Amino acid sequence: MGSDRLSNNLRRLRFENGQMTQQQLADKVGVTRQTIIAIEAGKYAPSLPLAFRIAQTFGVPIEQVFQYDEQES
Amino acid sequence: MNQTKAESWLYFIIGLACFLIPGSVAVFIVYDQGVSFAPVFMFAGIVIWFGLFWLFPFIEKKVRKGQKKVSFDERDQLIHKKSVMAGYVVLWLYFVAVCVVAWCTVGPRGSISVNVMPLTLLGGLVIFTTVNGLASVIQYGRESKGEKS
After folding, report:
1. pLDDT over 90 (residue A58)
2. What is the ipTM score, two decimals?
């Protein structure tokens, strides 16, 4: 379910936004805390709508939250 | 523990119990009393199975409609989808295995009791229930490693 090529700055962004907890972020984007944990750990690649909702929550473009590594094989 | 993960455990354990306990009783009755209990048992099994997998989540969803907290999201949906697929694959393999075993046991010109059919179907439901629950539990277990707040 995860993607080795997809990395994210979720943890950093949470702490930069008033030390937001995983539960608070989960409530804001409408998922469970376990899903946020899985995304942060790179074990789950979120759907596009969810990725956009997360980016909107932090008020940043989606590429600042998620990065796709093209170099990795 | 995630609520959906807890539900998977519940389905796995209760699902097994729902079939194994009445199953043991049915086998005991068949051998002790000499009655053909298979069709009744199959009907009861199917009712329990539908109750467990379709009615219970439906009622639960209705009850929780007013609650704001999210308990089932896209990741749970994906896990559920994969678990159901795993259940169906194993179910299909089980039916193939049953056919092969029956053919090997009684031979191409042999015959088997009609009671074998409902019991085979019920066995399929047990296998589906178990594999579905187990696959969910494995996926949640694997995903939950290294949980931090």
Report:
1. yes
2. 0.82
